[in-house]
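How a chain folds remains the central question behind the approach discussed here. The record that follows shows the chain in one-letter code together with its fold in token form:
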Amino acid sequence: MYRKAVCLLYSFLLIAILVSGCADQSAKKASTEQNQDNKLHLAFVVNLPDPFWSYARAGCYTAEQDFNVKCDFKIPFDGSSAEQNRILETLIQQDTIKGIAVSPLDPKNQTEILNEVAAKVKLVCHDSDAPDSNRLFYLGTNNYSGGRQVGQLIKEVLPDGGQIMIYVGKMDVLNAQQRREGVIDELKEGGSASTAKPSGLPGAAIIAGKYIILDTRTDQGDRATAKKNAENTLKKYPDIDAMVGLWAYNVPQCLEALKDVGMEGKVGLISFDEDELTLQGIKDGYVHGTVVQQPYEFGYQSVKYLKALVGGDTSMIPENKQLDIPTKVIKKNNVEEFWAHLKTLQQLGEEAKKTSN
């Protein structure tokens, strides 16, 4: 009887040891998983779906590895401020999110939601600013200066002046406003001071020195509408001298419309951003040039600075709260070198993505 009791006691002890060991292993596993999940959690929010943002995504992936953080990449697939607001609201409901970089679609009407975000996490703007909000600073292109560079390209194509049409997604986005203003100011510089409009011009036409800006056509981020705008321009103004796109996809749609009627190479095309169709158009001689940003740096630097801000370091914030990332002018003489550089950046992003997975 005694021996039986001892055997039972040893059995219970063995079971207890095994259970305790399993529990310890489970706890260690849970702790490890928790440590993995305890990476600083950030978010990068763009304005609409576009290949332009693939470079920013690559920058985010690389920065995730370099700074040991996690960064969610968010796209408002309908390109609306309402969808962007919904994304921001969802992000700040997650206790893990500590910092957000956003390209505001409608800054004047998004001040309330942006301030709500800024009250809960570290907030910076990239690509397009919302200076009336409580964002900590803007990181990206000086869009006014970029617009002036576009104006310089127009002058190269039309040294004696001419009629042009401007195309952009939305005019309530600050980067669109600033680029357009830069174009107009550059064209006015050194030209005639006359503001008298020749007869037959639309009411929206602007006289800028030797240049007539017939209008600014918007498409709400829809490529089909962008192409339709270009087609309508060619029908209404068959003698137009140049078409100018201020968002990445505008000039590719203009070029497609020109090709449809056999006019490629007969109308000057000047672009903003590094859409691959634009770069191919430059190689083919149909697009004179484009002013490119550095979206890879938008992603990389946003992650870098958000991590610093969450850690309490505000030393990088400039007095004017504008952290400029320089633009570059791409023409036929440097397009191949630049395109190869873009492919290298994409490869870096893909490698970082595989590592993070």
